[in-house]
Amino acid sequence: MRPLGRSPQLNFPTLWDQEVRHTGPLILYSAFTGALAGLLLAFLNALLRALTEALGLFFGYLAPEPPGEGGLAQAFTGPSLWPLAFLLPLLFALTSLLGTGQGLAAFLLQAREDRPSPPSSHLRAVLGGILQLSLYSPMGREGPFGVLGLWLGRGLDRRFPRLGGGLAFAGLAAGLGASLHAPVAGALLATEILYRSLLLEARALTPALIGALAGFAVYGAFYGYTPLLTFQAQVDMGALPAGALVGLVAAALATLWVEGSRLLEARIRPLPYPWRHALLGLALALALLFLPEALGSGLGWVAVATTPLLPPLAVLSLLFAKLLLLLLASGIRAYGGPYTPALVLGGLLGAFLAHLPGPMALPPETLALAGGVAVLAGVARAPFAATVLAAEWGGYATLPLVLPAVLLAYVLTPAYNPTEGVREGQATPEGSPSETPPQREPPPPDPEAAGGRETPPG
What is the pLDDT of residue 177? Predict the structure, then answer.
């Protein structure tokens, strides 16, 4: 008879024990990374808000903020002297010298290839992004937020090599989750944009989820935990045709933005780097004088567009104005992220479609949410994050409309690079093909990614 305690069932492989010993510290350090990133992001957002308010009062326009952070306060008096608007080209040229010519996508590429970043490059990218965002840039704050979180996470990965990596995911997810007020969607987005395939890496997703939740717990203590846009509406399975139509139109809009910015970038690349940013500043100066609603990120205007305050023609005009500014900003690789702009374009599109008769006779909040996440799925190549973001902002009752919109936009929007996806090797008994981050992978469909290694003088 075999003695008690000697049965084979109790002799687990030592590999399992090693995984448990590694998982505990990884969870602990991921939470620490996320919490520290959340605190730094709260201070960075305070700096962004202070600069935005000071410069907005100087130029005579304060854009409405999203309801999740400060409500819809807006002010517009116009510049006291109209020539003051044309200081924007000079200021954008100067901020281009402060930055590095690299944004979130370039740093993601360096992380994928495990290449070191030049000294102070992250700090310069964060400062350049914050300054341009405070000067009415149409890009998103997830750019500098994500760079800051990624910088912190990679630094802690080097400080604690025994963990085997993963803290970069926690920092990046904390930045994205805080910028969107959606920690789970931020974690999925961090993983999807880094790996560029639908195969989610478990070792990356675990620290990303923990870091995003910890980061938003700290960040939300300063700026609240409510969604940036609270769209509570319910639809049933009869909304599937409308969701398919939203997905088709969102795919066309995302394709127009991605392909148009790529063509424009090729045309203006011969211009010196500061001149390109000055060109964006000139476009923003003209918008300040003639259509100030197009300035800034635009999330506040999406909330307004779902109310009767904006007629359909005004919503459509704002949509085209935002698209033109984003084409230019993406073409010159302005600092900031493309994910908030994608939500804005799709949100305005959905708010306009709500005015159409027939199958689109649905609540405008639900259509705006479906349009926003559909464009996000197409531009970021992140259908999981887009779907979860819709659930975090609007509840699961929106999924019958959101799911077909997200899937169709993702499938029909062409990838930024035709070789998109992780080039995985064949699985071997020693390990899963997803356990190693992809190497030498093309940059994600971020307007900053193309030519990311270019560094302007200064």
Answer: 95
DSSP one-letter string for 316-374: HHHHHHHHHHHHHHHHTT-SSBSHHHHHHHHHHHHHHHTTSSGGG-S-HHHHHHHHHHH
CB atoms closer than 10 angstroms to residue 77: 10
Looking at the DSSP assignment, which residues form a beta bridge with residue 61?
A: 76
Tell me the per-residue pLDDT of 12-33, one tens digit each, with 9 for 90 and over.
344 334 454 567 777 888 999 9
**8 A C-beta contact, residue 362 and residue 380:** no
Q: What CA–CA distances, in Å, run from 35 to 107, 218, 435, 458?
A: 21, 6, 26, 33
Q: Whole-angstrom Cα distance, residue 331 to residue 327?
A: 6
CB 159 within 8 A of CB 171: no
Q: Of the candidates 326, 189, 343, which has an alpha carbon nearest to the alpha carbon of residue 262?
A: 326
Going 22 to 25 to 29 to 30, the CA torsion angle's sign is positive
- Measured between alpha carbons, how far is residue 225 from residues 142, 143, 195, 229 in Å? 17, 21, 28, 11
